Amino acid sequence: MEKRNTQEQKYILARKKVERIGKFYKHLVSYVVVNIFLTAIFIAGDMNDGDTLKEAFLDYHNYKIWLYWGIGIVFQALNIFGLNLFMSKDWEEKKIKKYMDQQDNRR
């Protein structure tokens, strides 16, 4: 016997999916803000150690955290969105409706 979800159950599942998407965007903002701050500190530290601004700015070691944390961000994005990474206006409501419709089609 196939289990059928009620509209309320579908809404709850869709809402959880949208919450995961919202958390991803908060994580992405944290990634950018924290990495800008850390990179500025690393560059300032290199300049205190005698490097020129150009040398400090072009030093790979100041950007490693962007790469490593960025790999995690990419995997999180792929886990949440698959290959569709774009959102439009009113994306939360559209996403909720989409996930509810997907559950209707499973019957």
Descriptive overview:
The model has no long low-confidence stretch (mean pLDDT about 85). It is built from four helices and no strands. The protein has one domain.
Helix and strand arrangement:
Elements: H1 7-48, H2 53-58, H3 64-81, H4 91-105
Flag low-confidence runs: none
Radius of gyration equals: 21 Å
Helix/strand order, N-terminal first: HHHH
Question: What's the total helix number?
Answer: 4
**What is the helical fraction, as a range of percent?**
over 70%
Report mean pLDDT, rounded to a whole number: 85
Q: N-to-C terminal Cα separation, in Å?
A: 11 Å
Quickly give the structural class.
Answer: mainly alpha
Q: Percent of residues in beta strands?
A: under 5%
Summed up, the domain count is 1
β-strand number: 0
User: How would a textbook summarize the main sheet?
Assistant: none
What are the key terms here?
mainly alpha; 107 residues
Quick summary:
The chain has about 110 residues and is mostly helical. The protein is built from four helices and no strands. The chain is rod-shaped and about 65 Å long.
